[in-house]
Fold this protein.
Amino acid sequence: MARATIADVARQAGVSKATVSRFLNHRDKLLTKGIAARVEAAISTLSYSPNPMAQALKRGRSRLIGLVVADVSNPFSVAVLRGAEKACQQAGYLLMLFNLGNDSRREREAIETLTAYQVEGFILNTLGQDGGAAVESARHGKPVVLVDRRHHDMRADFVSLDNADAVRMGARHLVEAGYRELLFVSEPVKDVSPREERKSAFCRYLSESENTITNLHGSTFESMADEPEARLSNALQCLRQSAGERLPGILSSNAVVTLRVVAAMTRLGLRLGTDIGLVGFDDTEWSPYVGPGLSTIAQPTDDLGRIAADCLIERLKGLELPPRQILLSGRLMPRGSSVPSPA
Amino acid sequence: MARATIADVARQAGVSKATVSRFLNHRDKLLTKGIAARVEAAISTLSYSPNPMAQALKRGRSRLIGLVVADVSNPFSVAVLRGAEKACQQAGYLLMLFNLGNDSRREREAIETLTAYQVEGFILNTLGQDGGAAVESARHGKPVVLVDRRHHDMRADFVSLDNADAVRMGARHLVEAGYRELLFVSEPVKDVSPREERKSAFCRYLSESENTITNLHGSTFESMADEPEARLSNALQCLRQSAGERLPGILSSNAVVTLRVVAAMTRLGLRLGTDIGLVGFDDTEWSPYVGPGLSTIAQPTDDLGRIAADCLIERLKGLELPPRQILLSGRLMPRGSSVPSPA
DNA sequence: TTGTAAGCGTTATCAA
DNA sequence: TTGATAACGCTTACAA
């Protein structure tokens, strides 16, 4: 038999639908003990639970939160997803996931689809390049929280790693380990805010440290997904050239790039740590087992997701505040790839 | 301003709501050219799109498919998710994801929540241990497709890797490479169907090959997440003991276990391939870069997800057929970890 | 404190 | 071919 409706419960308990609805929404506030008990009994014998679609239609609120991620296969996104999910669940919301599959042109579609399903707000881990779809929905009164990636045209709560600090931490670690010719490797920076921030923080670190640390020098390199392998290999060889007697060290801006660097070093027969130092953003379960162990900067991904969701839920509860910016610190995980010579 | 409703469109076009609805659902089948044009114009000027909640309420169908995964942080689940998503999108369905976070007791909650949102069917990548919640919903007429994990009490379409074949492939590869003392390492097998299938396929392979291959011997080991590190280390040392002069080789049943094995070997100072051969289920982006490269058995994850979704959608379209079982072949990715001595 | 009735945005049934 | 009108399952004035 089909799901029980509020009418079934009302009939079973010998009361009106309104009474059942009151029991559900205001619990015992307005109800006689006896009636409440009868309703409760009816609900449990019919194992009734309200139809959220109908509720959404009537209330205009769906208890749904839209989560749009640029790419679910990015472990970072998944980690954020998990954190957000937990927070949403606790607050009685359900996450609706829309994965862009790295096609940023679909962002508008995602937001419109989710809007159609009456999501009450958005958590976005996207580029924001699809004609300000997010901005629009913010104007329509749906709160938005940005995670990890800023939208340049948008004022909204923003939750992210403290990139500047993390870069400084990674670079300083390399320097303290003895590496002097630094290279920052990232995917193409263009319009992707964390990449921009990391790159410029890297440059800032260099110009700040040139005075105090002798022989320190650095440069940056952008590696594309579909480039010929030789490009990155060349860059590494140049790096060793310019290093001369000094030790070269690489700071890579995410796990994918880190793997590309490792691959290139493998091709060239270069040893991690010994020939070139390496520190990479994003600590993964496999980081300890690549080569002598990869030194990484771990992001508090769970917290990022949780806090993003909490921010959104606060807004949904009516919190009025100028857009907040919440930056969380990363944690350095030193391993063999940033140790100059084998023990 | 708020979303346009069908009433707004009707007013704008100077027709009734029914006419607009007809335009939407039966297109031009029943409509005068002129009227159709007016409705079309009104729809586009108001940029109207129907409210799926209202549609769901009225039709009893939501265009939603529920996907329940045991653990999103498992890359396998994510890959399936991506495949399923693509297929659903093409068929005009939206996926609602529910992540169990490895707590199989929440499966019932997941199914009930999704049912409340009127999902039309389920794709389950779960244990099915939560009191046959899935079975129930199947009885309520919601089609279910199982991916990777069987529910012993359930007859439903099932999509999975051909585990028996994959195990044979992995074991044979080790044997052909010269390893003779084989160990199958998996997480606790209890009631997790792919683990059971892989383990028993391993044992079957052994008993079938003992006759033809001299000196071949094998055993199995179950490694728990929270066990002391020493347990697995011991197992490896035992393995080398019993191997004697022969080469020991390990077949590990998923990526997590593979990393545990690698960790244990690292602790013991054993070299991958040279001291112990290793082939692991699940090919990951990092597999090539751990040690001399990890030999793996790649699953066609995208296909698994896509086919699962397609099966479900066929059922939703009314296909009546006894439960199907669709097994896809894995692919061996040989790398350094199954090469006995360094080149 | 409880019930009646209207309405959320659709679709489906009936007349016209 | 088109238009009223009644549902779908729920919430919420307003009445009682």
